[in-house]
Amino acid sequence: MKISIPVNSTSTETTTRRPCPTNLSRLTRQSVPLATSTLKSRERSCKAIYLGQCVVPDADANSDLEADLKISSFTPTVANHCRSKSGLEFFGLARSETLVLLGQYEFRVYHGCISLLGGVLAPTSTFHRVYAQLTESLPVLTGTSAHFPAAVAAVKGVSTESLIELLKAEVPVRTAENLARNDCVIAVRSVRSGLENLEKVCLNMPCSFGISHAEGSSYTPLYTRAEGQSFPALTREPGRTWGSAMHSVISTVIDRATKHYGTPPRIVVCGPKNAGKSTFTRCLLNAMLTASIDDVAYLDLDPGQPEFGLAGVLTLARMRAPVFGSAMSHATLDAATVVAATHFGYLTPRDAPTQYVEQARALCSQQWSNDRETFPVVVNTPGWTKGEGVRVLREVFLITQADIVIYIGPHFDEAEMQTSQNDSDAYGELPRMLMSYIRMTSIGRSKRDLPRLIQITPMDTPDWTKSSKEQQQMAKYSAADLRVAQTMAYFHHTAPGRWDFETHLTHMRPYAVRWAAADDTDAEEEIGIVDAVDILDDDDGVRHTPDVITAINGTILAFVLVPKDTTLDISHTALTSTTTIPVLRTSFSTPPTKLAGLCILAGIDIPARTFHILLPPPAREAIMAAGEKHHVVLIRGRLPLPVYAAWDGSQTGTAGAAWRDVPYLGMDETEEAQGGSERAVTTMMTMNRSTTTTGNPTTAATLSGALTGGAGGVIGGQELRVRRNMMRRGRGRRVAPLQR
Q1: 396 and 247: one domain?
Q2: What domain range is 92 assigned to?
Q3: pLDDT-derived band of residue 146, with 50, 70 and 90 as boundaries?
């Protein structure tokens, strides 16, 4: 697809031109935590966690340390720890010994096996990248034994002499001999991806990778904490029920593959919110991919906390390597991993259950038609498990044809439910639906092909020791915080494994994409034309009024590709007496679509029929590659634009403009009590109706004249009311029923 960069015709220095900062904002009221007492309190808490953990205990004094002061059971000595001249740091671990590292790093297993986030890694020449942030539980490196034949063969294939020869290339002979005596040997090296600069943009996430590291190092070993300081949340090794469930699934996959019966299993993970479904699914995928299973299909149907995409996106990924990091480190819609993606547009299926089921069906159909017979499928589901949510979940089971159901939640007695004739709510809606599904799908199957229900306990809560309630709260991040960080990481993503947070979005030059007009005769031949615009939840028909511009400006839009042989039902909404914009008459009910990427609509040039958009380079390449064979539709969903995408953190304005010159954003300082004594300053981003637009004079004047009827006016007032009324849902709104 042809995407050009707009050039300011009044300036010859195009490389320094900045887009109009006023177009990168939301028209709704949003809360923004600044570097206030609340934010500083969170930062102090992070420092308390971090600084106290960097103590390297003396080997002789270690026996005097209390067990609850330890973070890693590993204690560095001359016999198990050294650093090579090439920058590698070697650790020798005993079986069951643990090591926690904070930051970004890559590690290689030289000897033994290492367990990490469910995966068991045997000796190879591969370096595995890890993103260990305080935004989530820190991953724990654990010395372990090989569980599966391939790993056992890899471990047995390395003799002590061969290991010493391998280590001698990096460390002196005596050091190599000392390291070789340990059960497990790993080498760790620093890596800087740019993600460590996330806090420069997301001001609500200070020191997510720690306060500071040793010079030249991107990580820090955490051995102990100081007495009285809070303990970090750790992702421990899977417990008995989690480990048993993963082993059962892997054994089934390997058994069916080696004995050539049946198809690879389809595993669906379900349970209520905050039960640990995403964590368990990640551990299960890592366990499968490190246990002689080369490929696993991962169908992520949780639009609120997706693994490989942004919120509101459903993805089908083909995984070939384990993942060690939070979702923000790989939620890039990378074409090498994500086979297909659809834009659902909502954070929960509660808002559009019928559309949710249809999109899940579309992704499943693609997987079944391509690779059903080749490798297993793991499905993650949302935590909506009451009322209509149970019926939606049952549809997901039927669509995916799940033959292994993993339930994470309160235990229930399956045998008692099998014999009970009671249809009351004594067991809960979800357990009763699960048992009903298992009974229904067992009819006519052989014993070894029977569907199974595996119950596991929810994830343990983080282990906090001797820390105040405030410290516990400040060290955690809400789902909304993580969604904001994930969104910002997506738009600052530059290449696989690389991010650039040095340049704020308001300082980036946007791409220009033209939209088709009613009288375009060459629209089909021209690459780069946006064929239509759509707005989800448009009950008031705003798309058919000039206010459609206000409804989509300064928001996140999805680049959706529709096959050329599909006829779009388009109408043209008049913006001025000479300019129209194509819109879909109604949103897609059954999505014949493919998501190519997401963008931020930074500005609109109405006379030129041009959108000014911000999107990461990988998404631009995907759109250019696919746009020639598809219609292009821009769809606005319910994913909110983070304030940090429009505000660069300045206390006096944004993008070099003072608050009085920014028409969409303003600052109101209010004080509210925190705990009865402490007072915090909260800044609200609000609409400023009394200012004039700045930036590109042509674009600003055009937008003002078109929407407010005056050459010197600003976008505001009525447009703000339209946006809020159209996109806001009342708390008591009734959930739409699932249509069949």
Answers
A1: yes
A2: 53-191+223-235
A3: low
Does residue 44 form part of some domain? Answer: no
Assess whether 280 and 425 both reside in one domain: yes
Q: In the prediction, which pLDDT does 658 show?
A: 82
Q: DSSP label at 528?
A: T
- Side-chain half-sphere exposure of 86, counting CA atoms within 13 A: 11
Q: Is 651 helix (H, G, I), strand (E, B) or coil?
A: coil
289-315: burial string, b at 16+ Cβ within 10 Å, e else? bbbbbeebbbbbbbbbbbbbbbbbbbb
**What total of structural domains would you count in the chain?**
4
Residue 159 shares a structural domain with residue 173: yes
Q: What is the pTM of this model?
A: 0.80
Dihedral pair phi/psi, residue 78, rounded to 5°: -65, -20
Residue 670 or 681, more confident: 670
The answer to whether residue 200 sits within a structural domain is no
Specify whether 594 is located in the same domain as 720.
no
* 153 lies in some domain: yes
Q: What's 608-642 look like in SS3?
A: CCEEEEECCHHHHHHHHHHHHHEEEEEEECCCCCC
- Sequence-separated (6 or more) residues with CB below 8 Å from residue 88: 170, 187, 188, 189
Residue indicated by tokens 């954070």: 347
Q: What single DSSP character describes residue 23?
A: G
Selected residue with higher pLDDT from 141 and 11: 141
Q: Which residue has the tokens 């219609």?
A: 631
For residue 479 the two structure tokens come to 């789902």
In the three-class reduction of DSSP (H, G, I as helix; E, B as strand; rest coil), residue 382 is classed as coil
Summarize the confidence of residues 579-596 as an average pLDDT.
81
Which residue reads 């009044």 in tokens? 10
Q: Both 616 and 530 in a single domain?
A: yes
Measured between alpha carbons, how far is 249 from 296 in angstroms, rounded to an integer?
12
Residue reference for tokens 């002061």: 69
Rg (CA), the chain: 27
What average pLDDT score do residues 625-647 get? 84
pLDDT digits (tens, 9 = 90+) for 159-209: 888 899 999 999 999 999 999 999 999 999 999 999 988 988 888 777 788
Percent of the chain with pLDDT over 70: 69
pLDDT at residue 413 is higher than 70? yes
In the numeric block, which tokens belong to residue 463? 């282990």
Nearest to 465 by CA among 51, 70, 58: 70
Residue type, 363: L
Question: For residue 209, what are the CA distances in angstroms to 103, 122, 220, 326, 606?
Answer: 5, 27, 10, 12, 43
Q: Which residues contact 396 (CB under 8 A, 6 or more apart)?
A: 268, 301, 357, 360, 379, 381
